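# nightly structure sweep
# worker-07 picked up a monomer target from the shared queue
# config: single-sequence mode, recycle default, output format = structure tokens
# input follows
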Amino acid sequence: MGHRNPQGLALQPNTGLLWSHEHGPRGGDEINLIEQDNNYGWPTVSYGKEYIGGDIGLNSSPDGYTDPLWVWDPSIAPSGMTFYTGEMFPEWQGNLLVGALKFTSIYRIVIDPDSNLPVSEERLFNDEMGRVRDVEQANDGSILVLSDAPNGGLYRISR
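# output follows
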């Protein structure tokens, strides 16, 4: 309950937990950990704004609602996502890779291994491939990126 516009789902390999991200209105894109019986708030809770201005609902989650794990404001327009488990980029292991339509990049969300919560982000490949529609890990640990730019296509990121 309470999702506005989910765009990506990924199972976390070491836990089996289901993570989701979704578009918020003018700000307020979210990453959520999906758990049974939780209410993620929309439209009662939103960290974005009306397109014509003003708040949408509350900017915090009261009792009975589940806070997002991560919020983007301004919106990045998240697309596909995957957890990285490969060996080609060992510094990314356990991190979440999220495509961004608006900022034409990939966001690497660092997950703290002790708390299993997002703690920071890094914007990768800024404006190099166009709007990122999907991001996946290949069997060899390289990253596959699908772009919808006019001259875009399928990219393979490797070392």
